[in-house]
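Slide 14.
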Amino acid sequence: MANCTHLDEIKVDRPETTDGCEECLKIGGTWMHLRVCRTCGQVGCCDSSPNRHASRHAHESDHPIITSMERGEDWSWCFVDEIGFIVADRL
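Slide 15: predicted structure.
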């Protein structure tokens, strides 16, 4: 079974609430689902959204792990190891 090798890069817990995708809010864009960067806490939109800000942030910043912000979802994704998993907020 594959494991994420970047768990040590989780620096922030998933926020309880958010106003939306930080970049979309700046440009007046729209989003479908939200993801949070677990290294810096930036909230971005998913790959089904027009601007794909969460993935773009991960690739530009080398921050490997995002977590879904959707109600009832607790999964995370590591872009480097290309693996999904559940991590308990622990900070």
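Speaker note: The first helix runs from residue 22 to 27.
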